[in-house]
Amino acid sequence: MLNRLTLWVCFAACFAVLSGCGANTRVGAGSSTPTQVADVYVAGVQRDANGRDFAVYWKNGVPAFLPDQNLGSMASGIAVSGQDVYVSGTVNNGTEGVATYWKNGVAFPLTDGSKNAAATSIFVAGGDVYVAGFEFKGQGPGYPVAEYWKDGVAVDLTDGSEPAEAWSIFVSGSDIYVAGAEEQTTQTGPSNFVVNNVAKYWKNGTPVALTDGLEDAHAYSIFVSGSDVYIAGDYCKDMVPNCAIAADWKNGTLLPLTDKTDTAASSIFVSGADVYVTGNDGGTATSNPTIVHLWKNGVDRQLPLSGQAIGAASNQVVVSGGDVYVVGGEDFGGVPQRGMAVYWKDGVEIPVSDADSLSGPTFASGRAIAVVPPVAGQN
Question: Which of 17, 288, 329, 372 is the most buried (most CB within 10 A)?
Fold first, then answer.
């Protein structure tokens, strides 16, 4: 099966649609002029005292819990278009995961629940809703098939002969791009074979391999700017334990972000000439689980954590109004596990979930973020 980074990164590669609508106003002390601020939407997961995870999104820190028939769920991506809020995720039906998206809190199942499936990313363009994910198909357990749904209609990207998953979707004009990975068996000698994940993306259903299958690799996030295609993920130089190295690709050219193994890049965003990538150390016994990274044009900056955190992960980066936002979660340990959804704005950590999660039994993590700038001239 495909690699799973960390608890927070599982469904991380998700892009938000940034829409110029909606605004808050704040009045500073001694000032009569309202200050316009952006609306910040964070999608993720929160765990209750009984250990059940459920999908949630926060608008400026106020939670909106998404219906899941009380069987458990998680949110993986968020997009805002006009006054509508779209969230992708997965709902547990008691036996399997159902790929789902919610529009303004109303659930729209994408699969019938007979086989395990997940929705990992959402994008809204031209009134159409695009969701990436995977679904187990065929007789028996089968293999996961990478696919996307346009307005609820599934498009298979792989044939199910090998395990594959789709992690991120991006729409540019009439072109649909999906990033993911597919297992491949590669012959290395007369009787020698290796089985690895090949990082790839699909443009309008046509696959483009980023690696050759001799070492393991994954594509977790995709961004298109003009004619350039940017991918974030990881690759291995050598097939040894925890070999993954955080990297990005521009038009198929590999650009390692570090020489440290057990790392991965979870999200990429392009703003003008600047390329932003966020990612994590893997958190195994051989690496420090408390480090989260933000690379700007390949230069690494480690993001600060609160003093109580024993681990963390960053899941998505977006740029809006010149500000850089990175969303993720912090782990405070304990039994049951405690944690908090957070985002960093220009390197400053901002809690998202209720601060009670620091002392209570709940755990929360931010998986995706959308930032909606204020409308010019609106007070």
Answer: 329
Residue 1 has pLDDT above 60, yes or no: no
Tokens standing for residue 210: 């980023």
Q: Are 316 and 267 in contact (CB under 8 A)?
A: yes
8 A C-beta contact, residue 290 and residue 312: yes
CA dihedral 273, 278, 81, 170 (to 10 degrees): 70
Q: Is 155 helix (H, G, I), strand (E, B) or coil?
A: strand
Nearest of 373, 376, 303, 311 to residue 340 by alpha carbon: 311
Hey, what are 189's tokens?
A: 């000698």
From residue 286, alpha-carbon distances to 110, 165, 260, 303 in Å are: 39, 27, 11, 20
79: pLDDT confidence band, cut at 50, 70 and 90?
A: very high
What is the rounded CA–CA span in Å between residue 305 and residue 293?
A: 11
Label the pairing between strands 153-156 and 164-172: unpaired
Long-range residue pairs from 288-291, CB within 8 A, at least 24 positions apart, any chain: 289/331
Domains located in the chain, CATH noted: 24-372 (2.120.10.30)
| DSSP, residue by residue, 288-307 | -TT-EEEEETTEEEEPP--T
Amino acid symbol at 259: D
Bridge pairing between strands 274-281 and 143-150: unpaired
146 vs 124: CA distance, rounded Å? 19
pTM for this prediction: 0.89
